[in-house]
């Protein structure tokens, strides 16, 4: 409870109690700029054994967060948990996510296309990808650059 009170105090309006009884919380995290480009919502469920015996159950929500970006961030959060076994880690998670968003904002990554909803983005996924697939004819490294 002390951790939840501290997080609520630190993050203010960005911290949200979804369900107090079930210990479900959500925090909106952005890149700290005046006009944030990168925003992510971290939803956590604190199981009865948290923090001493069980990690938080979490979900990362952002329309732009998929594939490799998602896996890297998820792996980073799990590393933080393993390095801090038995300790409260939500603050560390939030600040690590903020750090990643700031790095994205400062890098050459284009802004996320927030005009598309996740439903619209997912709508075209599926068999179309297989039909559009063509083997790469050129040097794969050059194509990636």
Automatic annotation (TrEMBL):
Ranges of biased composition (kind: Acidic residues): 120-130
Q: Which domain of life is it from?
A: Eukaryota
Positions of the RWD domain:
2-104
Q: Which SUPFAM superfamilies match?
A: UBC-like
What cellular-component terms does GO give this entry?
cytoplasm
Question: Which residue intervals make up region (Disordered)?
Answer: 105-145
Output the InterPro entries linked to this UniProt entry. Answer: Impact (IPR023582), RWD_dom (IPR006575), UBQ-conjugating_enzyme/RWD (IPR016135)
Q: Which GO terms describe its biological process?
A: GCN2-mediated signaling; regulation of translational initiation
Pfam families assigned: RWD
Annotated protein name in UniProt:
IMPCT protein
Q: Which organism is it from?
A: Sagittarius serpentarius
Recall the taxonomic lineage recorded for the source organism: Eukaryota, Metazoa, Chordata, Craniata, Vertebrata
């Amino acid at each position: 409870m002390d951790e939840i009170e501290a997080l609520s105090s630190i993050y203010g309006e960005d911290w949200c109690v979804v369900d107090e009884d079930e210990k479900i919380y959500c925090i909106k995290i952005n890149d700290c700029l005046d006009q944030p480009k990168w925003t992510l919502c971290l939803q956590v469920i604190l199981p009865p054994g948290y923090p001493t015996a069980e990690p938080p159950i979490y979900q990362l929500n952002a329309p732009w967060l998929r594939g490799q970006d998602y896996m890297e961030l998820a792996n980073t959060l799990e590393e933080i948990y393993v390095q801090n076994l038995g300790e409260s880690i939500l603050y560390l998670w939030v600040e690590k996510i903020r750090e990643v968003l700031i790095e994205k904002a400062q890098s050459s990554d284009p802004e996320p296309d927030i005009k598309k909803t996740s439903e619209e983005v997912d709508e075209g996924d599926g068999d179309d990808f297989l039909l559009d697939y063509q083997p790469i004819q050129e040097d794969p490294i050059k194509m990636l650059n």
